[in-house]
Structure formats: structure tokens, C-alpha cells
Design brief:
The chain is α/β, with parallel strands linked by helices. The protein is built from 16 helices and 22 strands. It has helices at residues 43-62, 65-81, 83-94, 98-115, 165-176, 191-203, 218-226, 239-252, 274-281, 283-286, 303-318, 338-354, 386-389, 405-413, 428-437, 470-475; strands spanning 10-12, 15-17, 23-27, 34-39, 123-131, 140-150, 153-157, 180-184, 210-212, 232-236, 255-259, 265-268, 298-302, 357-360, 376-379, 396-402, 417-418, 420-424, 442-445, 459-460, 463-464, 477-485. The strands form 6 sheets. A 7-stranded mixed β-sheet has the order 14-15-16-13-12-18-19, sandwiched between helices. A 6-stranded mixed β-sheet has the order 9-8-7-10-11-21, sandwiched between helices. A 3-stranded antiparallel β-sheet has the order 5-6-22.
């Protein structure tokens, strides 16, 4: 499973193989130390992984669903048994706080394998149809079934912000439906995904059903997308990369599931519980250090509560401890890399130049090591500012004022993105009315909480398709119609 020293091998066709193109360093965002050496796959090795998945697809797709489900359950148990060591590695790779690494990364990853370890019906009977006699034969009553069939070989390209929950949310439902997978982890934190592969191997996954190939170069991901053996691409990441993947998928008529960028609007009305809104919006500062596409980063505040909300958000940010994610009191850890820290800081400076008021944050925390960004609040923003329109993906919240309901909806919808928006109002009827008017794949009403059976995905440039719960099983399947005359 491992090479010499801390060098990780690729997982291809059920074997742990040395990479053709050597290794690269995985860096701890908190210490800037080396966590381990990740394998750099060649294009040929990526194609070999897809070929192995193609060969394994037939037998795996014919395996009884109950057996596939049992394997996923065993994998969940193995992950749970190795919970602390897996969480320690995830923390080192991603810079997550201890609570996040344990609860939201490894914990959610295990829960997703457990979720898809139950068998759901793949056949849906349809109402019979009476056909009159005609060119296609005599009169008959036609029965029909809609049957979900696996797509085939699925390339799963995963995001760096959660090296457990995101891959598990792709791999588990894809396998449950009878697909085989080639997983291309994010280059920043791939080692956790190899631990996931080890758990699946120990659970008894047949050779070729799961393959993991990593690399720091773009061509590794490109090979995993454009390979002729691949039938579907499931991608989580930036809209720009998603658009390039979609072009390749279009040329090959590959199926796609795209969970892309977000600039979540939080519409807060004068009658809202301002403290509750501030607590919900404030999670942007702390949760994954703002590196999450579902965060309410764009606050649309009605003028009657605007000043109070800005004041409470600033107070919330000021109470957060920024620092070593391994320390018990830390709430805000580092962002993933020095390059990303520089990008977030450049956006804050851009906001200043555009005329936004920096209420809190805006300066780098005073640490000698680590890629830290202070929780930052930009107030008095206008809809045309780039900090309002573009995804920053860091602990930065922007606030825009509005007058009435119609304007609030218009400002929220004035975005290229539409992943998850939020509404805070004491008038529940209005909150739901506004929610229905928002062009987003999901809307939280007086909450930033999630229902993990609800469909997840975006409108506009926030993605294509839906997953989570049973919707993920739909995403990783094709619908086949079977029709027959009654009496047969």
C-alpha cells in the first residue's frame, strides 16, 4: 500500500503500484511541514485505471445490490475503527480544526458509506396505458417499468475542502448503483482518499471497482476526464474548471454531475432575529475557514437592521480564535495554501479599492508559519463590486443594503451563481415566498442547516444535476423503460 518512507502508491486494478512520474509533497497548511509524498500518475496510468474499471464494470454491475450494500457497510465500519488516525491525517492535509476533521470530514464520510449501505428499489411501475388498434398492432393494454441502470465507469474529481465527505459522497452512491470508479483526488490533500481506498479494499471491493490516481499536474485530471473508457464525470470544484470539463464531456457525450462555485446570498429582513442571522452567517468565518461553496458570503440586509447586523457580525468575527487547528480553542484554521491565502488577501484589498468598508479583519494574523487569513467583514458594498460578484472562497463576508422585498430578491438573484441562498424573516409566509423566488438549488429559511436527504446542486453556473440521499442514486444511473402488453 505504501512505497519507501512516506511515499504513497497509486491504487489501480486492485494493486498498489509505483507512480511513473514520481512523487510530490503534500503540505500541512498550519505548519508548512511535509505531511507525506503523494504519487504523480502518468497519463498512461490514469488510462490503465479507467481500463481496469471498465473490465470490472460488468461483474460488479451484476452483483446483487444487497452484496454491494453490505460491502459499503463494512467499509463504514472500517473507517469508524480507524477514525482518529484518519482524522489526524485529514487535519494535517487540509488544515481543518479537530472538530471539523473528526465530525464533518471523517465522520460524514463514514456516514455516507453507511447511508448507501441500504438497498433502495431501482424499478418503478408506471400506470398501464390502453392502446387502440392501429399500425403498431391490435388493441392492447401496455404495462411499463422505469428501471434505473448503472451508467458505467465514473470519474470522480474531488475537492480539497473536504477530503472525506466529498469523495465518499461520490464513491458510495456510484458503487451502490453498480458503477465502477476512477477517483482523482484534489492535489492538495489526496492521502486521505487513499485511506478510503484501503478501507474499501479491506471491506472486499473487487479489483478494478475502485481506482485512485493522483497528481499535482492538470494533465492527470484531464486524462481522467477525456479517457474513452469513462462514461460519466462527477466533479466538485470551481466553475472555470467545471466549464472545461463540460466541454470535454460534451464532445464524448459523457454524463456529468457538476457541483461548482457559489456566492450564497443571505437575505435578512427587518423583522428577522438578527442574532440568529449573525450566528448563521458567521459560520462563513469559521467553517472550513470560509472554503465552502454553500457559505452565506453575500449578505443582503434590509436597511432597518443593516447597522445592527453589521455590528453583530463584526462582534462574532472578533470572538473567533484564529490559529493552530490542533489547539482545542481554535475556531478558524488556515486556508489550504500560500497561493490561496494570497488570492483571498488580494480580494480583500480589491474590496478596499472598490470602496467597501473593512469593518474587521483585513490584515494577516501574526504567525510565522501557516496560511492564515483573518475573518474579514466588508460593509457598505454595492452590487457591481467584484468582491460581491465573484467567489472568494475564504473567511470573507460582504454586506449590501436593500430597501424592500422586491429589491432584496433582485439583488440576491443578480449573480452568476445559484447554489444555496438563505432567508431570515420573522414572517414565515414571506420567508417561504421569497425562498420560492430565489434562483438557487437550495434555500435555508432562518437556518444554515442542511437536510442530508434533500437534493443538492445548483442553478446557473453553480452546477448541473443533483445528488445527496436518493438523488445521488439517480445521478449515478440511467433510466431504462421496459414496456410489454398485458397477458405476457
Amino acid at each position: 500500500m505504501r512505497g519507501a518512507g512516506d511515499e504513497q502508491r497509486l491504487f489501480v486494478g486492485g494493486s498498489w503500484v509505483e507512480p511513473d512520474d514520481g512523487y510530490y509533497e503534500v503540505i500541512d497548511p498550519a505548519t508548512e511541514g511535509v505531511v507525506g509524498m503523494a504519487p504523480e500518475a502518468s497519463r498512461g496510468q490514469v488510462h490503465a485505471a479507467a481500463a481496469a474499471a471498465r473490465e470490472a464494470f460488468g461483474p460488479w454491475s451484476r452483483t446483487p445490490p444487497e452484496e454491494r450494500a453490505a460491502l459499503l457497510g463494512r467499509a463504514a465500519d472500517i473507517i469508524r475503527r480507524n477514525f482518529l488516525s484518519y482524522a489526524d491525517l485529514a487535519q494535517a492535509e487540509s488544515g481543518a480544526t479537530t472538530g471539523t476533521a473528526r465530525g464533518m470530514q471523517v465522520g460524514v464520510g463514514a456516514a455516507r458509506f453507511r447511508r448507501y449501505a441500504r438497498v433502495e428499489p431501482v424499478e418503478q411501475p408506471l400506470p398501464p396505458q390502453i392502446n387502440e388498434a392501429g399500425p403498431f398492432g391490435k388493441a392492447a393494454v401496455m404495462g411499463a417499468l422505469a428501471v434505473r441502470q448503472p451508467v458505467g465507469v465514473v470519474t470522480c474529481v474531488t475537492s480539497y475542502n473536504n477530503p472525506w465527505a466529498n469523495p465518499a459522497g461520490k464513491i458510495a452512491p456510484a458503487l451502490a448503483m453498480g458503477n465502477t470508479v476512477v477517483v482523482k483526488p484534489a492535489p492538495q490533500d489526496p492521502l486521505s482518499v487513499y485511506r478510503m481506498a484501503q478501507a474499501l479494499e479491506a471491506a472486499g471491493v473487487p479489483p478494478g471497482v475502485v481506482n485512485v490516481v493522483s497528481g499535482s499536474r492538470a494533465e492527470v485530471g484531464e486524462a481522467a476526464v477525456d479517457c474513452e473508457d469513462v462514461d460519466m464525470v462527477s466533479f466538485t470544484g470551481s466553475t472555470a474548471v467545471g466549464q472545461r470539463i463540460a466541454e470535454v464531456c460534451g464532445r464524448g457525450m459523457k454524463r456529468q454531475l457538476m457541483e461548482l462555485g457559489g456566492k450564497g446570498a443571505a437575505v435578512v429582513f427587518d423583522d428577522a432575529d438578527v442574532e440568529s442571522a449573525a450566528l448563521g452567517i458567521g459560520t462563513t468565518f469559521s467553517f472550513y475557514s470560509g472554503q465552502i461553496c454553500t457559505a452565506p458570503t453575500r449578505v443582503i440586509a434590509q436597511k432597518g437592521i443593516y447597522g445592527r447586523l453589521v455590528e453583530q457580525l463584526a462582534a462574532y468575527a472578533g470572538r473567533l480564535t484564529v490559529g493552530d487547528p490542533r489547539e482545542p480553542g481554535t475556531v478558524v484554521g488556515p486556508v489550504i495554501s500560500a497561493a490561496h491565502r494570497d488570492r483571498v488577501e488580494a480580494y480583500v484589498e480589491l474590496g478596499r479599492k472598490e470602496g467597501a468598508r473593512i469593518v474587521t479583519g483585513g490584515t494577516r494574523p501574526p504567525y510565522d508559519r501557516g496560511f492564515y487569513v483573518a475573518p474579514t467583514l466588508l460593509a457598505d458594498c454595492t452590487p457591481d463590486m467584484r468582491v460581491v460578484r465573484e467567489e472568494i472562497f475564504g473567511p470573507v463576508v460582504v454586506v449590501v443594503p436593500f430597501d424592500d422585498e422586491e429589491e432584496g430578491i433582485a439583488l440576491a438573484n443578480d449573480s452568476d451563481y445559484g447554489l444555496i441562498d438563505y432567508v431570515w424573516s420573522g414572517d414565515v409566509a414571506r420567508a417561504f415566498r421569497v425562498a420560492r423566488a430565489l434562483r438557487a438549488g437550495g434555500v435555508g429559511v432562518n437556518t444554515v442547516g442542511r437536510n442530508m436527504e434533500a437534493p443538492f446542486g445548483g442553478f446557473k453556473k453553480s452546477g448541473v444535476g443533483r445528488d445527496v440521499g436518493s438523488y445521488a442514486l439517480h445521478a449515478y444511473s440511467e433510466v431504462q423503460a421496459i414496456v410489454w402488453p398485458s397477458g405476457n
